[in-house]
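User: Let's play a game. I give you a shape written as tokens, and you guess the letters that built it. Ready? Here's round one.
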């Protein structure tokens, strides 16, 4: 039971369901507005305009031939009052005004939906164009930064002079060599000094 409640909660809180609910409520309110506009404003104007046409002074209807007028002997509960004000025992007629009203309803609802979709697509196109301009501007800034970095001269790196480290064996051999040279040079000096004294 708890799982079903959680799934139902997730279903209700989804964005699509909320948008659809708002659309249904707004659509119902809009349908009431359009119906009132037709019945209270447009249809009286249409009927008034048609009343100037001969034979249409009492409205937009057609009484069919199978309708029967009531006579003086007809019971009051069997009388049907027609749209033209006459009493009928059988009344069958076409109400053209209801048909025209439905057409006008459809026309105004379709026109309003067309305008809403047109405005929405225009706003969507403007939003896309704005996002594209932002992307292009950002790309241009990044390219300018990359070119500025490429134009900067690279800092000169002075190579550090690293004296090679001699091998300890080589150092030891050089010291031995130097000491041997000194020993060889020392007896020659002494012999020269002896010869000089004689």
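Assistant: Ready! My guess for every position:
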């Amino acid at each position: 039971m708890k799982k079903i409640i959680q799934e139902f909660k997730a279903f209700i809180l989804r964005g699509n369901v909320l948008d659809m609910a708002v659309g249904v409520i707004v659509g119902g309110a809009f349908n009431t507005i359009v119906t009132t506009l037709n019945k209270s404003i447009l249809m009286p104007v249409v009927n008034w305009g048609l009343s100037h046409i001969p034979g249409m002074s009492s409205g937009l209807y057609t009484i069919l031939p199978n309708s029967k007028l009531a006579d003086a002997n007809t019971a009051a509960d069997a009388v049907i009052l027609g749209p033209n004000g006459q009493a009928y025992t059988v009344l069958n007629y076409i109400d053209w005004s209801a048909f025209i009203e439905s057409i006008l309803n459809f026309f105004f609802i379709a026109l309003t939906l067309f305008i809403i979709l047109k405005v929405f697509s225009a706003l969507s196109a403007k939003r896309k164009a704005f996002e594209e301009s932002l992307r292009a501007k950002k790309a241009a800034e990044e390219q300018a930064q990359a070119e500025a970095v490429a134009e900067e001269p690279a800092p000169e790196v002075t190579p550090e002079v690293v004296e090679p480290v001699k091998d300890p064996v080589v150092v030891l051999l050089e010291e031995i060599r130097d000491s041997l040279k000194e020993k060889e040079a020392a007896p020659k000096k002494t012999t020269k000094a002896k010869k000089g004294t004689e």
